[in-house]
């Protein structure tokens, strides 16, 4: 099946006037201003969801399925109800059945409607059976234990390849299911494209490569677990205070599931303790909301760390089969990728993640004439996949960039030379852009900024490539270096929309109201900088308030590397609109043409007479004395291109060939994110993403028992890198100017999580000659691979 | 049972249950800068200084703190007068979502209090129980290194030897 | 569920509380393990007021009070000086600083956290533990581990860990394999050798198999009189016969194989 058609792009895409090509001359943008919420966070004053008290608060706990696949034949809550302090019990028998997707995506969501608040069937160990609201969390937990459930246990399937075979247990057999590709075959999603002819291309190629790459489960591990508090306001509207990346989608999905109008719900996002995609899911808010609607009391759900692992959302594990056809001279002619995603028990983000496995990675080598991609997502009786930083790109680049090194070796080429020969460049496009978007067709685009070659050059020097490639040390511990190059996108073209409102106050300060969601990314700061630059004021004059569905304009939320680019575009437009209004009031006062006036440091200045008038006086006049009106503007922004940031990653490792232990010694990232609005925050995005990717490449994994239950659901047993594991890290921003972005900016949030798995894998290969095609590279796995390689070929 | 402690220099008495964890007692009393990230002592978001040592308050029975001196992130500085660690964490880019930051500030402060000139290895060791998923630690370690210098300067100034 | 909390000022009082069969009272040290699971515990007997937090050098033996936090042990100068620093080094690898500041040497042993590298090192150094019950007993840590804390303590309280002085010129080494620094080790190894010229006079070898330390007396005996490189070969052959289990961190086979590598490397 070919992807669904995307709506036509408007004839003339709005593009800003291309008047500059560098960051020179910016007063606020491209400067490391103080993070607007920094000191409040550093002093513990900033308020997160759970940092406010709500009198009469009820605590909600869940009863989870102990079975990977079962029908609930009977549920008896009598004893639980009799427990003192229990106020409300929810289960499939007493809540409305509204099939929906928990994926916080734009409407209509490209994910299947396959989830109910509670269902009579459970589909993985950790699926929800019931919720209890009680006066204390201890009582709620105790009541969960008192609920008697009888199950008809069904055969389960854990392997995605088995799941899509004929005869496998059907996980979603509900008749009201909508939007899954082929539920009878456990196929949540399917997409395929072909440009040119893959088979012909491979047949003609001088060299053909084919391999299989695997990436497993991982959890986002924001240090703040999912938490939400719901209550009724004075006028009986439901208020949802929640740690979400998608306040507007949360409002819409809660309205859908609770069957009340959006207008009866207000979603507030206070400070958020990280998300990385985990909080792009709406699966707790409506449960708390229903408890509040039924009891008229405030109610809270705070997930435990264990629940974060087994009962929230994860990275979709992928099996990626990659085929590449290449000419003797190293030109890549054919790229073919077949990705099988394991979406777990529900299909949230199943289509779009697997789509991006191809659509993010394959345009990188755009000289290929033949490009094929098939993405499939299988339901299994395991935890649920979801959005996770990288979003398919992580999976796609792992296969592509690992294979590139194998190609280079076969051809006797330097891996960097092979990449230089084939990578996309300024002004170029890829047929993949138009053929494959996010869940549907995409939009063609030519690279309006691209410093990928420079990224490779700079990183090559920084890692001392030529020397380290050949120097492996003596003894059983071998060193080596490897590289991976990457691109991502900036927002989902033709879909993502952000809105911003700017209004002028008496003192010359501006309220900036945005739907965009700062979940720790620094977007409140970055958006304030964009407004400040456009309005010619210091950033302290911008009072940003974000993500409150009652007070801020719509924004899709924080995902798809969109906020700086999309929401920032809206902020820039709104600020420029307000600036025009300021100039026109000033023109009245000064009796000059607006064209002859300029904004500078909170004043309007006449270019001719040098007369100055302050924003304060302009505001006082427009609010109180002449031709009164509120100087303000709301603007929205959608983009039909998604300018990719580019990066080159270099890893230096030491592999202990007797134990298999891989130590990461040095990690270098060179990144083209256009103009970095806030260089330090941009570097921080790169470092955080890379560290997450490094930890995923080396240690993070879900371990399941035979019943499909995760057995390492804690930070003791699922290890993240700590300060003591940190390698020498070097982040170099390579500036470019993206004409489509606000003040030249592109995204940086996700791209750098995609590099570590292939770069470290390639470094291991360079160090000890062993190629690993699955992560994590745990010592035992690496040692096994070394043993296999050194075993006599006679076997 | 009663619990008597000094929190950020203020004497406090609480009615507690023997099973209560100190984290819950503190958060309940409004010290919400102390965060809950895991409840198993593995993430460090709940760190406080108890009698000079940085510890996890989520796996500390409140009763164990009897008679103790507790410092939470709120007692280290405030937005008007942040401590050098808090200042540098902000300026050097050590903060993204900031949920781990109170714990990091606590660990770093306890370290500098007892060892005014820690090496980078000592900083890494003191912080190894404070997980951060946003920053990759790079800028947090830089921030603490800068705060060490800053602290030395202000101490020197106080002694008139700067 | 925990209902009572005691903080006795005298050891006798603590013993009486712990020994009382009617109350399920449990000694509470740092609490970093106990706080994670208090099911079946009625009363907590906080040991912090018993004066058991100390590090003493006594006739060249190191005496560690049961309530001494791991991080204090890690950073104590006399401990750093002892056994070429391997006690300090292995203490540093006990989880995280925030835990090491609370967890105590007596607490982690009484809780049965024998996966700790520190336990491996202490077994190699022939440490013993002092238990106060009706009377005071001292047993080797090796025996304490073999019989398990419940049986070894017999309702008594662990009060002290004693590390005897190493023989003059003894060479000690410790090494571990862990996925990340703050993880529980997949395996650990500690070796203590007395050399006479180029040959080994006597040796103590302990391997942490992921669950507990295992001493290798046969290997130790066979190493006597051997050169270091011959001993390394012996270790490579004999260490893989240790018992080990498969768990989330590694398989039993892998543990056996790499334990041999660690021991071998400590010898060459």
Radius of gyration of chain B: 16 Å
Q: How does the major sheet of chain A shape up?
A: 7 strands, mixed
Q: Please tally the β strands of chain A and state the result.
A: 28
> Portion of residues in helices of chain A?
25-40%
Shape of chain A: globular
CATH topology of the largest domain in chain B: DNA polymerase, domain 1
Q: How do the SSEs of chain B run, as a string of H and E?
A: EEHEEEHHHHH
In what order do the strands lie side by side in the largest sheet of chain A? Answer: 3-5-1-12-9-10-11
The geometry of chain B reads as: globular
- The end-to-end span of chain A amounts to 43 Å
Low-confidence stretches of chain B: none
Give a short account of the largest sheet of chain B.
5 strands, mixed
* CATH structural architecture of the largest domain in chain B: Orthogonal Bundle
Count of helix runs of chain B: 6
Q: Write down the domain tally of chain B.
A: 2
Overall average pLDDT of chain B: 95
Side by side, the strands of the main sheet of chain B go 2-1-5-3-4
Jot down its keywords.
heterotrimer, B: Ubiquitin-like (UB roll), 5-stranded mixed β-sheet, C: 268 residues, alpha+beta, Enolase-like, domain 1, 3 domains, 5-stranded antiparallel β-sheet, 4-stranded antiparallel β-sheet
């Amino acid at each position: 099946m070919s992807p669904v058609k995307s709506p036509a792009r408007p004839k003339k895409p709005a593009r800003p006037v291309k008047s500059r090509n560098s960051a020179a001359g910016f007063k606020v943008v491209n400067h490391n201003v103080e993070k607007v919420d920094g000191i409040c966070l550093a002093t513990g004053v900033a308020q997160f969801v759970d940092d406010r008290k709500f009198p009469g608060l009820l605590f909600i706990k869940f009863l989870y399925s102990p079975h990977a696949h079962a029908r609930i034949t009977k549920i008896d809550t009598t004893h639980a109800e009799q427990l003192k302090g229990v106020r409300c019990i929810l289960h499939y028998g007493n809540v409305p059945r509204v099939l929906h997707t928990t994926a916080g995506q734009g409407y209509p969501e490209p994910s299947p409607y396959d989830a109910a608040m509670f269902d009579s069937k459970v589909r993985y160990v950790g699926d929800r059976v019931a919720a209890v609201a009680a006066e204390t969390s201890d009582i709620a937990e105790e009541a969960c234990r008192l609920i008697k459930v009888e199950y008809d246990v069904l055969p389960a399937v854990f392997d995605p390849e088995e799941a899509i075979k004929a005869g496998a247990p059907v996980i979603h057999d509900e008749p009201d299911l909508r939007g899954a590709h082929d539920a009878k075959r456990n196929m949540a999603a399917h997409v395929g494209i072909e440009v040119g002819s893959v088979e012909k291309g491979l047949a003609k190629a001088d060299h053909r490569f084919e391999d299989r790459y695997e990436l497993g489960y991982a959890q986002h591990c924001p240090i703040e677990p999912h938490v939400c508090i719901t209550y009724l306001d004075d006028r009986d509207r439901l208020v949802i205070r929640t740690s979400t990346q998608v306040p507007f989608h949360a409002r819409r999905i809660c309205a859908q599931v609770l069957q009340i109008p959006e207008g009866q719900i207000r979603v507030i996002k206070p400070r958020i303790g990280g998300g990385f995609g985990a909080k792009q899911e709406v699966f707790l808010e409506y449960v708390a909301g229903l408890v509040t609607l039924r009891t008229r009391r405030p109610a809270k759900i705070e997930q435990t760390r264990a629940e974060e692992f087994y009962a929230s959302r994860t990275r979709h594990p992928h099996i990626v089969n990659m085929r590449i056809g290449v000419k003797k001279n190293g030109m890549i002619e054919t790229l073919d990728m077949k990705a099988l995603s394991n979406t777990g028990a529900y299909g949230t983000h199943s289509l779009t993640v697997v789509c991006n496995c191809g659509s993010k990675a394959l345009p990188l080598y755009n000289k290929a004439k033949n490009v094929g991609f098939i993405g499939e997502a299988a339901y299994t009786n395991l935890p649920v996949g979801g959005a996770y930083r990288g979003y398919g790109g992580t999976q796609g680049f792992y296969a592509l960039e690992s294979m590139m090194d194998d190609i280079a070796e076969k051809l006797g080429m330097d891996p960097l030379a092979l990449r230089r020969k084939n990578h996309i460049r300024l002004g170029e496009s890829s047929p993949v852009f138009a053929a494959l978007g996010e869940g549907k067709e995409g939009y063609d685009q030519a690279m309006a900024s691209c410093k990928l070659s420079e990224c490779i050059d700079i990183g090559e020097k920084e890692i001392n490539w030529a020397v380290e490639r050949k120097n492996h040390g003596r003894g059983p511990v071998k060193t080596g270096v490897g590289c991976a190059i990457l691109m991502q996108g900036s927002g989902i073209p033709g879909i993502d929309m952000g809105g911003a409102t700017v209004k002028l106050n008496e003192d010359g300060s501006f309220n900036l109201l945005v739907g965009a969601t700062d979940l720790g990314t620094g977007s409140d700061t970055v958006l304030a900088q964009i407004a400040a630059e456009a309005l010619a004021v210091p950033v302290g004059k911008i009072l940003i308030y974000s993500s409150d569905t009652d007070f801020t304009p719509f924004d899709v939320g924080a995902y798809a590397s969109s906020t700086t680019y999309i929401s920032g575009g809206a902020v820039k437009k709104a600020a420029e609109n307000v600036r025009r209004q300021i100039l026109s009031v000033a023109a009245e006062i000064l009796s000059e043409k607006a064209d002859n006036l300029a904004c500078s440091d909170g004043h309007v200045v006449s270019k001719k007479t040098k007369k100055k008038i302050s924003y304060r006086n302009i505001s006082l006049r427009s609010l109180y004395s002449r031709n009164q009106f509120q100087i303000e503007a709301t603007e929205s922004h959608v983009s039909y291109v998604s300018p990719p940031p580019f990066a080159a990653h270099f890893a230096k490792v030491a592999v202990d060939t007797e134990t298999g232990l891989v130590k990461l010694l040095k990690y270098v990232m060179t990144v083209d994110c256009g103009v970095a609005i806030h260089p330090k925050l941009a570097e921080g995005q790169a470092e955080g993403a890379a560290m997450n990717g490094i930890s995923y490449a080396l240690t993070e994994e879900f371990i399941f028992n035979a019943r499909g239950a995760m057995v390492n659901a804690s930070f003791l047993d699922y290890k993240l890198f700590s300060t003591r594991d940190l390698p020498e890290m070097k982040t170099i921003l390579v500036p470019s100017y993206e004409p489509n972005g606000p003040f030249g900016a592109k995204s940086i949030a996700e791209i750098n999580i995609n590099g570590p798995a292939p770069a470290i894998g390639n470094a291991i290969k360079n160090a000890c000659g062993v190629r690993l095609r699955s992560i994590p590279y745990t010592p035992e796995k690496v040692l096994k691979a070394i043993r296999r390689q050194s075993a006599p070929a006679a076997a | 049972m009663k619990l008597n402690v000094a929190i950020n220099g203020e004497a406090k008495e609480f009615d507690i249950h023997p099973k209560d964890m100190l984290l819950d007692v503190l958060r309940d009393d409004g010290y919400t800068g102390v965060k809950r990230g895991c409840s198993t002592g593995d993430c460090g978001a709940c760190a406080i200084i108890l009698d000079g040592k940085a510890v996890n308050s989520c796996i500390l029975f409140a009763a164990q703190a009897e008679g103790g001196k507790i410092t939470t992130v709120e007692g280290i500085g405030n937005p008007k007068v942040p401590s050098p660690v808090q200042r540098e964490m902000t300026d050097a880019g050590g903060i993204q979502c900031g949920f781990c930051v109170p714990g990091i500030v606590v660990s770093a402060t306890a370290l500098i209090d007892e060892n005014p000139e820690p090496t980078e290895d000592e900083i890494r060791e003191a912080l190894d129980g404070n997980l951060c998923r946003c920053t990759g630690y790079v800028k947090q370690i830089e921030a603490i290194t800068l705060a060490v210098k800053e602290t030395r300067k202000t101490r020197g100034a106080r002694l008139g030897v700067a | 569920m925990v209902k009572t909390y005691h903080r006795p000022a005298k050891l006798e009082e603590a013993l009486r509380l712990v020994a009382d069969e009617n109350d399920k009272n449990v000694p509470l040290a740092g609490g970093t393990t106990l706080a994670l699971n208090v099911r079946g515990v009625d009363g907590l007997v906080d040991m912090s007021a018993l004066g058991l937090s100390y590090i003493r050098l006594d006739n060249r033996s190191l005496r560690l009070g049961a309530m001494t936090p791991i991080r204090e042990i890690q950073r104590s100068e006399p401990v750093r000086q002892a056994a070429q620093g391997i006690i300090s080094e292995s203490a540093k690898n006990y989880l995280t600083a925030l835990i090491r500041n609370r967890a105590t040497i007596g607490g982690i042993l009484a809780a049965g956290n024998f996966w700790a590298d520190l336990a491996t090192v202490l077994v190699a150094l022939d440490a013993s533990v002092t238990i106060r019950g009706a009377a005071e007993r001292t047993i080797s840590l090796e025996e304490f581990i073999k019989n398990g804390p419940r049986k070894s303590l017999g309702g008594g309280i662990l009060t002290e860990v004693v590390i005897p002085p190493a023989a003059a010129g003894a060479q000690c080494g410790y090494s571990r394999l862990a996925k990340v620094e703050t993880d529980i080790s997949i395996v650990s190894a500690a070796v203590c050798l007395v050399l006479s010229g180029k040959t080994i006079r006597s040796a103590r070898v302990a391997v942490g198999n992921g669950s507990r330390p295992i001493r290798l007396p046969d290997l130790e005996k066979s190493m006597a009189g051997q050169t270091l490189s011959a001993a390394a070969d012996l270790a490579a052959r004999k260490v893989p016969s240790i018992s080990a289990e498969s768990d989330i961190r590694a398989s039993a086979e892998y543990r056996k194989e790499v334990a041999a590598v660690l021991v071998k490397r400590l010898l060459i």
